[in-house]
Amino acid sequence: MDNVIRVQTPGALLARGGIYAALIFMAVVYLAPLLVMLLTSVKTLEDIRAGNLLSLPREITFQPWLHAWSEACTGIRCEGIGGYVWNSVQIVVPAVVISTAIGALNGYALTKWRFKGQEWVFGMLLFGCFIPFQVILLPMAQTLGWLGLGSTTTGLVLVHVVYGIAFTTLFFRNYYVNVPDELIAAAKLDGAGFFRIFLRILLPVSTPIIVVTVIWQFTQVWNDFLFGVAYSSHETQPVTVALNNVVNSTTGVREYNVDMAAAMIAALPTLLVYVLAGKYFVRGLTAGSVKG
Amino acid sequence: MSALEIRNVRKDFGRTRVLREVSLSIDSGEFLILVGPSGCGKSTLMNAIAGLEPVTDGSILIGNEEVTWRTPAERDIAMVFQSYALYPSMTVRQNIAFGLEMRKVPKAEREATVERVAKLLQITPLLDRKPSQLSGGQRQRVAMGRAIARQPTVYLFDEPLSNLDAKLRVEMRTEIKKLHQTLGTTIVYVTHDQIEAMTLADRIAVMREGRLLQLGTPDEVYNDPVDMFVASFMGSPSMNFIPAQLVRDEHGISLAIGAASDPYRLPFPAARTTPDLDAWVGRRVVLGLRPEHISERTPWGEEDANTHPLTTEVTVAEPTGADILLRVRLGEDEVNARVSPKQNVTPGDRLPLQVDMARAVLFDPERETRIA
Amino acid sequence: MSALEIRNVRKDFGRTRVLREVSLSIDSGEFLILVGPSGCGKSTLMNAIAGLEPVTDGSILIGNEEVTWRTPAERDIAMVFQSYALYPSMTVRQNIAFGLEMRKVPKAEREATVERVAKLLQITPLLDRKPSQLSGGQRQRVAMGRAIARQPTVYLFDEPLSNLDAKLRVEMRTEIKKLHQTLGTTIVYVTHDQIEAMTLADRIAVMREGRLLQLGTPDEVYNDPVDMFVASFMGSPSMNFIPAQLVRDEHGISLAIGAASDPYRLPFPAARTTPDLDAWVGRRVVLGLRPEHISERTPWGEEDANTHPLTTEVTVAEPTGADILLRVRLGEDEVNARVSPKQNVTPGDRLPLQVDMARAVLFDPERETRIA
Amino acid sequence: MNTRASVQPRAGHLFAPNSASRVRRNGAYWLQAWLPKLVLAPSVAAALFFVYGFMLWTFVLSLTNSRMLPSYEFVGFAQYARLLSNDRWLVASTNLVIFGALFIAICLAIGIVLAILLDQRIRHEGAIRTIYLYPMALSFIVTGVAWKWILNPGLGIQQVVRDWGWESFTFDWLVNPDMAVYTLVIAGVWQASGFVMALFLAGLRAVDDSIIKAAQLDGASLPRIYWRVVLPCLRPVLFSAVMILAHIAIKSFDLVVALTGGGPGYASDLPATFMYDFSFSRSQIGMGAASAMMMLAGVLAIIVPYLYSELRSRDRG
Amino acid sequence: NNVEVLHWWTSGGEARAVGVLKDLMEERGHQWRDFAVAGGGGESAMTVLRSRAVAGNPPVAAQIKGPDIQEWGSLGFLGEINTVAKEVGWQALLPEVIIEAMQHDGDYVAVPVNVHRVNWFWANPEVLAAAGVDDMPTTWEAFFEAAEAIKEAGYIPLAHGGQPWQDATVFESMLLGIGGVDFYRQAMVELDQEALASDTMIEVLKNFKRLRDYMDPNAPGREWNAATQMVVNGQAAFQIMGDWAKGELTAAGLTAGEDFLCMGVPGTDHTFTYNVDSLAMFKVSGARAREAQLDLARLSMEPAFQEAFNLAKGSIPARMDLDMSRFDSCAVKSMADFKASADAGTLVPSMAHGMAVSSDAQGAIFDVVTNYFNSRRMTAEEAAERLARAVRAAG
Ligand SMILES: Nc1ncnc2c1ncn2[C@@H]1O[C@H](COP(=O)(O)OP(=O)(O)OP(=O)(O)O)[C@@H](O)[C@H]1O
Ligand SMILES: Nc1ncnc2c1ncn2[C@@H]1O[C@H](COP(=O)(O)OP(=O)(O)OP(=O)(O)O)[C@@H](O)[C@H]1O
Ligand SMILES: [Mg+2]
Ligand SMILES: [Mg+2]
After folding, report:
1. Which positions fall inside the ABC transmembrane type-1 domain (chain D) (predicted)?
2. Which domains are delineated in chain B?
3. How confident is the model at residue C19 (pLDDT cuts 50, 70, 90)?
């Protein structure tokens, strides 16, 4: 769409103004919930009771944030949700790394080493994307029990890896389909084997899709509540469960500013990932994973 | 010694048979060129030789050793791809050294080889660039360097020059030829380009629909095609196919072209008539005449028994600089002719030409096979 | 009437100047071919004409009307893109009709036009296919059909044949030529292919680094190049550039080639010596001689004053079927020569040749410009 | 070598193609052929067990009268019969159709429009893109409360607009049983439309530039170029987008819980919440399993044609 | 000897109360591992419990109440704590209904920690005064009269949060008020088909629907405590809610009896709808775990914990022998009413809070009640019929 002769008539200028207006309006709409949360999280409780959603805080206080981070009670522990962030990290990092690695290997094996029934294997894996997680809650619990992984971080990592593979494989496969087969042929002739070709040839060119996959998986795993609550214990609860406990206690006085601060804290890592790596996201999609 | 031997190789992709009983044997040091229309199975054959695709049937021998069921790494082969297939994440140096590294060549030796190859191909200043920073011709040379570094028994080149522009192509062609002469290696080379095929090959293999139609020196393939397909495939503009009737007259055997009432007659070289040809007398055949055999009259033309005068109308004249390509009437058809740029031709002229029958060929109009 | 006029057009992309003061004027019905090395700005110029890129400076006139700041839709232009740019979601019919539809041509008329164009290009059976179901050559014809349907003032073709294989290319070239003759339209055409340029063009424009170097008929450009760049760019193998010394001797002005002690002398055609040339006597020049001007001896060669015998050693012989390309020694250099395939040549032979100086050209070795 | 070749019967391949050569395959060849399968094997095994095994298990449960915990007292298809006569299930399924259709349609519309607008050489495109995309980063556990406020007539938009002076402004979908399902659409669209935008933007960027140029020369205006020429090229993207959106729609759970809790009444219930409620709050695992199987059947109805066409187009391509 | 306890007492006051138990346990040398899952009246917690149970890894104790205790018991998950009960003499300390609920097959398997009264009626006296309502309505007729006056005066008569369980809470209170104790038992405990479809039920439903006119339109989806806030800040006059609402009221600095009034829901002042929270004990292996579990059971009944916990929760202790002097007037009244009702036989379990029927029947009732309440089209007759049908289907 570049390189069009754009005649600078008033009408054209108006149209351009309209485009910007529309884009900015939509940006405001998208930002609104976050804005509401942010505003509320720096208001005092009186302020919240007095004003409406969008009214600016009369005084800005960071107390709710501090409180949410280190004092808010989740159950009888009043240590804030800060500590749970670490739990989440312990789950997310291995889960993302392992599922991405498996997805990459699967994508590679599915596209660059032809064998019979390959498409069916892929279709079969892909279907895993569509299974509602509520369905597998109990059978998975039983399985984890059998494996002796009930209520452990390892168990949670396993669950996230198992149900993440479908998407990671999909992403990598769609990307690797567009990597020329000759590259692999050349490496085979050069004497490289299955894993060496993967590590030396394919992996170095996979950055865009790795970014996409990592963002996707990170978001999915970090935001997970259902598995987190069902398969964790006292020590291993991820931050979403802690957040839920702060926000969803139905008895007692609700400290909305603390709730919002806690929600923001829990969301910060994913937000950060999107802001920092967002541009690679679109680039990575362009590079392949869009292809139907 | 045969460097590479292919015995009855068949290859099916699912239901489609892509190679049908291909057999050929390539001598050590020979430069074999594979030509054929798109989709005829050239790349498939190359891949089979390299071990990138298992064959359905038949066997492949490299250096007299059966390798049909060896992995590509275990065959002593290097390949240059049409798309070059340079490893995008590696520098030129790493690209060239990769194959050696995989074969556990010591580092010092690897470096020496890279230097030597780079020098040979004049890419020493590029060694630390990434492929994306190279021009098409440079990439092509790196791809070649990668193959050369390994010094394998057989090189495979799959349309290595087709992505280059005309000028670069000519230059690279010369380099490849030199390389072959210096290294004395065995090469199998696929190309669509006539000139490339004619100038580089020791032998040319013409393929069609998974079959090997003809295998011979460039001269044989060009001048002695086994059928109309091979004849039309080599040469540009391609060979004229002129419907004619084989008649016997005072000169021996002649070809009668055009209206039955007033045919133009071209005697077939007496030296080349065979007893088999007699069977065709009185029947319709196809006369194959290359454009360069219909040309301006030359003084020696009159002396040559195989050269016959023809004065006819020019319908199209296309000067190409080095030649003028003409379309001229011959009998009821139009044929391509080629004259020197010295001639002054405009469409509509009647031009005195001569037809050189020395290399004329005859085909069976139905089965399209060669008669003589 | 000039169908298209380009006046002092400049185009910058950011800091890089891609077109530098290009001016040219094309007559109605003329077939202009743009050639030049990759990246010289040919496509940019086409885009500027079409209005797909705004120019930085200068003006563009179509049919004597200034259109520099009109949108592409408002210019009466059709373009065939190198990549064909067929609308993948539309059938061939819809592709061809789209431009008419956008210009609000009534449905009945649109259909009639599509039928007519399809017939002309022999794609009637393909009308209901999608572009993905067509072969390369068919796509190319559809792209052409889309342009033809509109009957604009000017057609632009940007390397329309470069994706085709050799055989198809020759066929399509003929069709384009016919089309131009039938429709009598104005065409600007970009190509990398020498033969295409020579055979199709009324005039050829040679570009280099955003500048127009020469604009002339194919014959002018081929035989009368303005500088060494143009000379080397047209023709394949390209013109030989032979360092020589301009001397005056008994024949008039001659070129002394090779060792100063024992030079080989080639007299420059007396008819073409100009007074300016005298200034160069005794200085080093570059002699430009095309390969076809160094060829086997012909009987008439002896008669021709401009033809000089040369017996020399052949270092490389490449039969291409229709010709044999040779590299032969001339003085201290090697030059390309071209002989008929009738010759029997092997490298190492000493071969009697003749040099035709009628079309020899001389260049300034420093500035690379033409002297004579 | 020659002896072997001549010994091999010509017709041999009819029965056992090159069986003689096959014997000669060495370890490296075998490894090369099997490594890819070995690499895929753990994933396949995991899918077989954790996806298909559990599906089967759920199916078995749906045939039992499991209550609080799985039991294996089979009752045939009674749970399905109960399910189909349950008013709430009917509401939930109808809601899914409404929600799914609107959610997908609006996400696509907004996503496409935004992608096109963003494709007009916009300044700060990166920042705007990130803003549009970020909702996908947040789960409704995080944003649910904010959304509830925004849509709540007494606190949110309605109140803000009234405070601005438009006293009669009403936006009470959240508390209106007939409209509550549409609030799900609003929040869902907010979350996913940016992602769709990204998909389409990527698609637009991949469209061959010369096609657009050709259309300009053909005299098409910008809107027409997009509508007639560019968008039809994005059919594969559209397909992927629809698939991703469909799976989000079917899996929507947090959205409902955070926003409406299925209310007012159960007016905004979706199958996912229905299934959860029956399995876990109401101790009717049998019926929950039956509803899950119905959901899976729905997923299958959408995904199988997709996979089929995917596999077919790959065969062709 | 870790003691993992799954519960959803997560809000500030509750958590502090649980903290007391934790401290007591730790004094005995046990390690308290708190496993709190908030949300949805324990739905999430129950899901987790199930997943843990299925995984063969249940906690030592979990917050389970009412008929669910029996279900878990019959699935064989619960362990008995008879020794502790005998030792301390629960038989004497606990009222009959609670003892029944805590036992499975004659064994004690759970410890009661409190008794909530569900049929509370809260009021803001300032609003009543402003609307000219002098007395708290004791019948529904009086209520509707008062509500009309309050509405006239520009206040919201009844603060309500439109979630199924809140709808059901109001519904069951009204049913008890209009239909009386016996009807309540027939309909909400025994699930008698005739009672469910009876004319009385239709009448209850009609009145129930009338309440809509006296609620604000924004009620759907509202949390109960947000509704309580409406009473606190004088927007609304009444709220029907269990005694946990008191926590919200006192937190706002209001004093029972002065700044807010408490009373049984109209027509139910002498009856008591109870909701008993309890910790059910899961089977554990190992002597030390067993010992810890018994300690937990024992300590949960300690006066220290019962007092602290119930002061925080707004409820009354499960054991009847505690000194109520530190409790507020509403709690004292609650205790008195509980004892009185127990004697009079007007003590009924709360259907809305899972004390009366199994969760599937409860869910079925919820569905119909909430759907009827929110529907503009369904008639009371239809609703009654559907109620009967749904309960039958849930069977
Ligand atoms: N993996 C495959 N599966 C099915 N058919 C294939 C496969 N690879 C190639 N073919 C088919 O085999 C035939 C031969 O293909 P091949 O690539 O060998 O042709 P080619 O002679 O190299 O053509 P070109 O000159 O266009 O490169 C074609 O018809 C092609 O469609
Ligand atoms: N949008 C652009 N921005 C910056 N530079 C550009 C742009 N388009 C083209 N150029 C540069 O302008 C020069 C001329 O490009 P152009 O496409 O006109 O070359 P060309 O003569 O058509 O080459 P080719 O024969 O390879 O098609 C090139 O150096 C190219 O890199
Ligand atoms: Mg090929
Ligand atoms: Mg170009």
Report:
1. 93-308
2. 2-233 (3.40.50.300), 240-298+305-363 (2.40.50.140)
3. very high
Q: Is the dihedral of CA D125, D128, D130, D135 positive or negative?
A: negative
Comparing CB atoms, the residue among E54, E68, E221 nearest residue D263 is: E221
Lowest-pLDDT range of B102-116, E242-256, E366-380? E242-256
pLDDT digits (tens, 9 = 90+) for E103-156: 888 889 999 988 989 989 999 998 988 888 888 888 888 999 899 999 998 899
- Residue E279 to residues B49, C235, E282, E300: CA-CA distances in angstroms? 75, 97, 9, 9
> Are the beta carbons of D124 and A19 closer than 8 angstroms?
no
Which amino acid would we find at residue E303? P
Residues B269 and B357: beta-carbon distance below 8 Å? yes
If you measure CA to CA, which chain C residue comes closest to B38?
A: C165
Instruction: Give residue for tokens 């496969």.
Output: A173
The amino acid at E155: Y
Residue D311 binned pLDDT confidence (cut-offs 50, 70, 90): low
**Stretch among A40-49, A154-163, C307-316, D3-12 having the lowest mean pLDDT:** D3-12
- What pLDDT score was predicted for residue E258? 86
Nearest CA to ligand 1 atom 24: B38
Rg (CA), chain A: 24
- Spatial neighbors of E30 by CB under 8 A, at least 6 apart, are E1, E2, E3, E292, E295, E296
Confidence band for D6, pLDDT divided at 50, 70 and 90: very low
In the chain, the amino acid numbered C248 is: R
* CA pair distance E120, E173, nearest whole angstrom: 8
**Torsion sign (Cα): A257, A262, A267, A272:** positive
Contacts of residue C263, Cβ cutoff 8 Å, sequence gap at least 6: C245, C256, C257, C331
Per residue in D164-184, pLDDT tens?
A: 888 888 888 888 888 888 999
- CA A255 vs CA B74, C131, C151, D294, E128: distances in Å: 71, 63, 74, 41, 29
Burial (0-12, 13-18, 19+ Cβ within 10 Å), A104: buried
Question: Could you give the maximum distance between any two Cα atoms of chain B, in Å?
Answer: 81
Is 3.40.50.2000 the CATH number for A82-286?
Answer: no
Which residues in chain D touch residue C83, judged by CB atoms under 8 angstroms apart?
Answer: 208, 210
Chain D residues 140-199 with a CB less than 8 Å from chain A? 141-143, 145-147, 149-150, 155-156, 159-160, 163, 190, 194, 198-199
Q: Is E36 within 8 Å of A230 when comparing Cβ atoms? A: no
Q: What local confidence, expressed as pLDDT, does residue A286 receive?
A: 66
Q: Which tokens go with C147?
A: 């342009």
CB E295 within 8 A of CB E130: no
Other CB atoms within 10 A of residue B84 CB: 23
ipTM score of the complex?
A: 0.83
Amino acid at E164: P
Cα angle C121, C122, C125; round to 5: 130
Asked whether the beta carbons of D64 and D75 are under 8 A apart, the reply is yes
C-beta atoms of A189 and B103 within 8 A: no
**Cβ-based neighbours of D141, under 8 Å, separated by 6 or more:** A223, A225, A240, A243, A244, A247, A263, A266, D254, D258
Per-residue pLDDT for C327 more than 70?
yes
What does the pLDDT look like over D10-20, one tens digit per residue? Answer: 333 333 344 44
Q: Which of B138, B141, B150 is nearest to B50 (CA)?
A: B150
Give SS3 for E113: strand
Strand partners, D184: none
Name the residue among B248, B295, B269, B298 with its Cα closest to residue B361. Answer: B269
Contact C291, C328 (CB under 8 A): no
Give the model's pLDDT for residue A159: 92
d(CA A126, CA A104) in angstroms, rounded, equals 14
